[in-house]
Amino acid sequence: LQIIYAIFTKYSLPLNFGPGKTEVLLDIRGLGAKEIKHQLCFEDGYLIQADLGGRETNVVACMSYKHLGGHIAVGGDMNPEIKHRTAESNRALAELRTPFFYCEASHQEDRNSVIGPYLWSRLLLNAGTWPELSDAQSRRLNGAYMRVVNAAAAVKYRDGQPSMTARQALQATGQPNVADFLKAKRLQYLPRLLQNAPPPLLILLDLAPSWRKALSADMLWIAERSSKLAEMPSPSEERPRPASGRGPFWKSLWSWSS
Hints:
By secondary structure, the chain is mostly helical. It has helices at about 1-10, 35-45, 80-100, 110-125, 135-150, 165-175, 180-195, 200-205, 210-225, 250-255; strands at about 25, 45-50, 55-60, 65, 70-75, 155-160, 160. The chain starts with a helix and ends with a helix.
């Protein structure tokens, strides 16, 4: 806290420690972590006292925070983000379900045109940066995804049975299944990451098994569907070599993405 405060102050960027302004995302690990978390929660009320600029200041510690529409949680937990994204998608869908998607005057092309700019921007924005999701998170995401697809395909239910299958609804709207969508987005993001990410970030990602595992699975997936490689944007021909300090995993990814 003192280091962050000193750096911001040096560049005339005073931090606002008022309610809801500046908080600390705190990840406690190692021996005694359970006891420290208990004290922070039940005794200190999630307040950390720090000497900042010669003044005792109470700073709130939090387990997750929202920034630019995304939820970042301690330990990279995706639950807050997935819950927020699906809720936003469901809310957006509810606004259009009756007056647009199930309006007799709307055509399939019109309904398809709304999916990207209005709904996917809420549900799957920056999904290429996500790590591998758990089964429960994938089910929740797929449920919200298919609700939009079914509405765009104007799927109707009679006696609990849909008028078309999930595959037919995806074909009618021209959408991939959500698992393939996430794989494609991660692979499209990879060249940009390798070209622009500073070495410390790649080192941190190298220590994140969930992201590495997801990328490895994605590369196997695209290798099995090599015919789809032509549909992916080609990287720039003039690209810098990997910076020193990048591990063999990232060097192999660089060679593959080139």
